[in-house]
Amino acid sequence: xxxxxxxxxxxxxxxxxxxxxxxxxxxxxxxxxxxxxxxxxxxxxxxxxxxxxxxxxxxxxxxxxxxxxxxxxxxxxxxxxxxxxxxxxxxxxxxxxxxxxxxxxxxxxxxxxxxxxxxxxxxxxxxxxxxxxxxxxxxxxxxxxxxxxxxxxxxxxxxxxxxxxxxxx
Amino acid sequence: xxxxxxxxxxxxxxxxxxxxxxxxxxxxxxxxxxxxxxxxxxxxxxxxxxxxxxxxxxxxxxxxxxxxxxxxxxxxxxxxxxxxxxxxxxxxxxxxxxxxxxxxxxxxxxxx
Lengths: 169, 112
What we know:
Oligomer: heterodimer
Order of helices and strands of chain B: HHHHEEH
Number of strands of chain B: 2
Number of helices of chain A: 4
Distance between the termini of chain A: 46 Å
Radius of gyration of chain A: 19 Å
């Protein structure tokens, strides 16, 4: 059973939904308390977040720094726009690679869903090109963890290429 | 260069991945691709050549136009990329499930 959905909407939006068995208050706190954020917002296996600064109030700033322990790393900075405990967070963030990416405007809603929570995160990028680049960057990070899987996949492409070559000769 | 190296090299560049992402929405000519990427036509053509060499995109002839589209291998590559992004997010939220379970336990412990 997959609890998460990820879809694009229009040219500039990306929407992620996920259900949790915990109530909205707990899920909201896990998104705003730095000690909790550091435990889960880590991306692929092997990455850690040594720096997690989070001022969860309107106009408050945050900064997350990740490292893979092998010299690879990047960070995100952002500002809170609106916080409605425990139902809604609006913030703006950008990735530093190290040049900053265009601002990503993110609204996260936490709705009671039975005894649990339905989270809906709506990201809005300035334009379609930026969203494509962001997807590609996220993919790049995923790639690192899945290097072997990618190599395997490319191997299969290569095998197909050879088949085609053999057919043509 | 083997086709394996070619595909790997083609996907290593962020502009080329962005071009693939654009072509995932439908075919486009060099001009149409050059505009949103704020790149010159020769620069885009160079990237397209690399993608074509790796078998990730194909072109068809329509009068003087040469629209490019994802090849089936290219579509598979894009699916693979998206699956990896989804995997990274899912890993995060699976970890969050554990954090939330820990919070709940902690709360119950305090009440007792």
